[in-house]
From TrEMBL:
Residue span(s) of domain Alanyl-transfer RNA synthetases family profile: 1-219
SMART domains attached to this UniProt entry: tRNA_SAD
Alphabetical keyword list: Metal-binding, Zinc
Protein name: Alanyl-tRNA editing protein
Subcellular location: Cytoplasm
Gene encoding the protein: alaS_2
Cofactor: Zn(2+)
Length: 390
């Protein structure tokens, strides 16, 4: 273990080794090498990728004592290996950032981390507390960035179980035998088998992006290093576009948006009031043009409008019946409503007309609505509805 290249020199990007054994696992070729810089998935850190003699290494896993390099092709004998360094260094930045942020939460609030996930976009830690305040998050982030800026060394040390007792570890170590400690002097002492840069400065920066409650813990999402710039770039692009659309400086985008949304709400209210007034006028006109039964075809109306209009008509005319139909979006739709002095049930209207249009509907004795296929004109539908009331 201690002799593995990625433990000997974490900054090593290429190496030479011998193929020790080969195998096939679930249709995937793998090789085991005499030594490697390829870090296998473990301790919350994803595996490395890269090449062996120009053959792609797509996955690296530790199975028993073997480190299996899953490759897209075959290699034999002596191999020259090369890491996808961008991916590995990113993992090192995120992983070291996690140590630092976790230690900051412990130092400031005695709030321990219970799990860690290094995702493709964001890193998360679950902290064993009911909640974290905005102030606590700001303080922990500031402390983490202070440690990064101080550019403290990140040291590793192999110790025995007996030697462990002389270190004040952040949490108990699960492994036995030789144990690898990752140490940021006077800040964090931690058993860890992952890869980290050699100094905190290489983490570059750490930014908390959000929190959510997770099974009694608080999950904190953050990014480090290059990912901070990538996040900033994405957010900058979005904010610039929002500010441009609102014609305000970026710093005023949020307050401008609040104003726009408030205006929109008021406009919607005013429009709804105006529409209701229009319908009221329409209802008066319908009543004026008809006798007891107000039967009418309307063009391109929503079901909601038909219902409102029918209700307005029979409210004004308690002895009347409103039979309204429209053809909209490839459907025939209708509403039938009765005034309070009328005794005939509107359900009898839908019983007669729904089969004519292969339709579906609902309602009660006072008002029914329905819709179906255009198997006749809206005028014919209204005529059928009218006939069913006579
Ligand atoms: Zn670690």
């Amino acid at each position: 273990m201690k002799d593995l290249f990625y433990y000997q020199d974490v900054m090593m990007q290429q190496f030479e080794a011998e193929v020790v054994s080969k195998g096939l696992e679930n249709g995937r070729n793998y090789v085991v090498l005499s030594n490697t810089v390829f870090y296998p998935t473990g301790g919350g850190q994803p595996h490395d990728t890269g090449t062996l003699n120009d053959v792609q290494v797509v996955d690296v896993e530790k199975v028993g004592d073997e480190i299996r390099h899953y490759i897209e092709g075959t290699v034999d004998g002596a191999v020259y290996g090369k890491l996808n360094w961008q991916r590995r260094f990113d993992h090192m930045q995120q992983h070291a950032g996690q140590h630092i942020l976790t230690a900051a939460f412990v130092e400031l609030f005695n709030a321990p981390t219970v799990s860690f996930h290094l995702g493709a976009e964001q890193v998360t830690i679950d902290i064993a507390v009911e909640q974290l305040t905005e102030e606590q998050l700001i303080a922990a982030e500031a402390r983490a960035n202070e440690i990064i800026l101080e550019n403290r060394p990140i040291e590793t040390k192999w110790v025995t179980e007996q030697e462990l007792t002389s270190y004040n570890l952040r949490k108990e170590v699960a492994v036995t035998g030789d144990i690898r400690l990752v140490i940021i002097p006077n800040f964090d002492y931690n058993g860890c088998g992952g890869t980290h840069p050699t100094s905190t400065g290489q983490v570059s920066a750490l930014k908390i992006l959000g929190t959510e409650k997770m099974k009694g813990n608080v999950r904190v999402s953050f990014v480090c290093g290059q990912r901070v710039l990538a996040e900033l770039g994405m957010r900058k692009k979005v904010l610039t576009e929002v500010a441009k659309q609102l014609s305000v400086p970026e710093a005023e985008a949020a307050s401008a948006l609040v104003k726009v949304l408030a205006t929109q709400k008021n406009t919607e209210k005013a429009l709804a009031t105006a529409k209701d007034k229009l319908l009221q006028f329409e209802a008066h006109a319908l009543i004026a043009n008809h006798d007891t039964i107000v039967a009418e075809v309307l063009t391109q109306r929503s079901m909601q409008e038909l219902q409102k209009l029918a209700r307005m008509v029979v409210t004004e005319k308690p002895n009347g019946i409103a039979l309204l139909a429209t053809e909209t979006e490839g459907k025939l739709q209708f509403v039938a409503a009765r005034g309070e002095q009328v005794t005939i049930s509107m359900k009898s209207v839908s019983t007669v007309v729904l089969p004519l249009i292969n339709g579906k509907g609902g309602g009660n004795d006072q008002l029914v609505q329905g819709g179906g296929e255009i198997l006749m004109t809206a005028e014919q539908l209204v005529a059928a509805m009218q006939k069913s009331c006579l």
